[in-house]
């Protein structure tokens, strides 16, 4: 689905709120309004009385009679009276401040942060706040639904980079950094503005996901059905790119040749993630691609299942935009050359010709891991990726079996163009998959029955951050198909057979 943004005028929203929080707020606002009226009326009366008293003193030299008794004591000092007008404005200021504080916290207390959008009051306040923000600073966030706004008024196609050999070498920043420092380095002066709008955008996206988890639009909600692309429909201009919340970047002055989703299978790699983002975002922007970064996090303690997370990432990324291709990227690998083009041509593609950990060589000639790319139609044709590999190893070779079984042939850059550096490990490596050899031997049995076709997982939790979209999912082992060969334990092949020719007979 195509990412789009709506820049419509503010619409009047009339809703019948029946929730307790709304009634409480209504009483608070009514009490404040009543006291302001009473205070104003009392201030006028006292001011009028004080004026009459002061006029009598100026005329007669003594205060007027009060009731049956007259005040004959001379005034030796100035009578101090309360400035009710100042009190009135002070109370008004306090009321406004309290309202703004309540406004900023109502979503957290009663809204989508806890229940995914069940309270209409929270939705209404956030839509109103969003409209006021846009009215206050309309030149910052713009609609990207318009093709002229999104890609510029010219029909120019973004040029591919023209780096050759070592001329395209990238300067990598491999030192550890905090994530917020990486955000500030990339977003620069727009950092605070981006962070300001993230909360509202997260509320909208989670509301949509909550509706989907309930089988579509909830019956008690009256607004029309929305999609994620409807919610994330405004961008801010940063340099030559429009930025959309969640790490989606769109060239502003030309039409991108490709729309690329970067899928990062992830768990507990918080040391590598800021370094990866700090380097990969400028790298992709130099290539004039439209791209989005999606970190697919395994939210449990089971053995890591990289290929299943790739399936989840493929499905979830399509909720945000209709991407042309998908690059599945290990979080610890950084490209060393700008000529290593991340566009969608020549796919299926293995982007690595060597890495520093292997002395800028490949582990073996059939290696097909770390950074790979496929078009949307290719992934759908070979049924995605295997879900059976829990633990380290095996899934890369299984994927190679799949693409060759469907008549695809991998491509790969040569020499320095495909060199990568690997970020040092600061985590416990995933345990090896003890069944990987057995699973590979019987991979052909599962080509059509294991992958996108049998993928099942609970609703994902989506969090938009300044540089990426985090999709956390609790994946579990799937039911065993009775047509599969059961691998209860691993076994060793003879050494000469360790690397087999996976081509189909």
TrEMBL record:
One of the record's GO molecular function terms: UDP-galactose:glucosylceramide beta-1,4-galactosyltransferase activity
Pathway annotation from the record: Protein modification; protein glycosylation
Keywords tagged on the record: Glycoprotein, Glycosyltransferase, Membrane, Signal-anchor, Transferase, Transmembrane, Transmembrane helix
Compartment(s): Membrane
Sequence ranges assigned to domain Galactosyltransferase C-terminal in this UniProt record: 349-424
Membrane topology designation: Single-pass type II membrane protein
Annotated TM spans: 20-38, 86-106
Residues making up the signal peptide according to the UniProt record: none
Keyword Lipid biosynthesis in annotation: no
InterPro entries reported for this sequence: Galactosyl_T, Galactosyl_T_C, Galactosyl_T_N, Nucleotide-diphossugar_trans
Family matches, as Gene3D superfamilies: Spore Coat Polysaccharide Biosynthesis Protein SpsA, Chain A (3.90.550.10)
GO cellular component terms, semicolon-separated: Golgi apparatus; membrane
CDD domains, per the entry: b4GalT
Main location: membrane
GO biological process, one term: carbohydrate metabolic process
Pfam families found in the cross-reference section: Glyco_transf_7C, Glyco_transf_7N
Galactosyltransferase N-terminal domain boundaries: 245-345
Family to which the UniProt record says this protein belongs: Belongs to the glycosyltransferase 7 family.
PANTHER family assigned: BETA-1,4-GALACTOSYLTRANSFERASE
The protein's name: Beta-1,4-galactosyltransferase 5-like isoform X1
Gene: LOC110980926
């Amino acid at each position: 689905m195509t990412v789009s943004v709506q820049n419509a005028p503010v619409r009047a929203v009339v809703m019948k709120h029946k929730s307790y929080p709304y009634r409480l707020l209504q009483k608070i606002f009514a009490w404040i309004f009543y006291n302001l009226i009473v205070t104003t009326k009392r201030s006028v009366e006292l001011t009028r009385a004080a004026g009459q008293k002061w006029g009598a003193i100026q005329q007669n030299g003594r205060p007027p009679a009060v009731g049956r008794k007259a005040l004959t004591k001379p005034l030796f000092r100035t009578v101090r009276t309360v400035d009710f007008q100042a009190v009135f404005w002070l109370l008004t200021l306090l009321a406004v401040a309290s309202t703004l504080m309540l406004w900023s916290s109502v979503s957290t207390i009663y809204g989508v942060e806890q229940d995914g959008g069940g309270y209409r009051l929270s939705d209404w306040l956030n839509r109103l706040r969003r409209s006021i923000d846009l009215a206050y600073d309309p030149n910052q966030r713009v609609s990207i639904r318009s093709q002229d706004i999104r890609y510029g008024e010219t029909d120019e196609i973004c040029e591919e980079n023209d780096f050759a050999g070592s001329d395209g070498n990238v300067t990598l920043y491999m030192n550890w950094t905090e994530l917020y420092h990486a955000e500030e380095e990339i977003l620069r002066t727009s950092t605070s503005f981006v962070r300001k709008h993230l909360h509202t955008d997260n509320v909208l996206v989670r509301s949509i996901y909550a509706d989907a988890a309930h089988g579509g639009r909830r019956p008690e909600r009256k607004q029309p059905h929305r999609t994620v692309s409807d919610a994330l429909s405004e961008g801010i201009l940063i340099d030559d790119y429009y930025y959309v919340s969640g790490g989606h970047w769109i060239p502003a002055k030309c039409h991108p040749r490709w729309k690329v989703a970067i899928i990062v299978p992830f768990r507990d790699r918080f040391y590598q993630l800021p370094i990866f983002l700090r380097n990969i975002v400028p790298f992709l922007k130099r290539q004039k691609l439209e791209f989005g970064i999606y970190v697919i996090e395994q939210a449990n303690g089971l053995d890591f299942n990289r290929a299943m997370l790739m399936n989840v990432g493929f499905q979830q990324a399509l909720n945000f935009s209709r991407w042309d291709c998908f690059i599945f990227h290990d979080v610890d690998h950084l490209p060393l050359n700008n000529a290593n083009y991340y566009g969608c041509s020549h796919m299926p593609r293995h982007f690595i010709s060597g890495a520093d950990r292997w002395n800028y060589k490949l582990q073996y000639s059939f290696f097909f891991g770390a950074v790979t790319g496929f078009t949307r139609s290719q992934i759908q044709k070979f049924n995605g990726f295997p879900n059976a590999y829990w633990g380290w190893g095996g899934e890369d070779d299984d994927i190679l079996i799949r693409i060759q079984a469907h008549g695809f042939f991998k491509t790969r850059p040569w020499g320095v163009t495909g060199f990568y550096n690997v970020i040092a490990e600061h985590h416990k490596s995933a345990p090896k998959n003890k069944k990987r050899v057995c699973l590979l031997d019987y991979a052909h049995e599962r080509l059509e029955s294991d992958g996108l076709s049998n993928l099942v997982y609970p609703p994902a939790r989506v969090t938009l951050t300044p540089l990426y979209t985090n999709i956390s999912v609790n994946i579990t082992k799937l039911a065993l198909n009775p047509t599969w060969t059961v691998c209860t334990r691993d076994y060793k092949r003879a050494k000469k057979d360790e690397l087999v020719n996976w081509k189909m007979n």
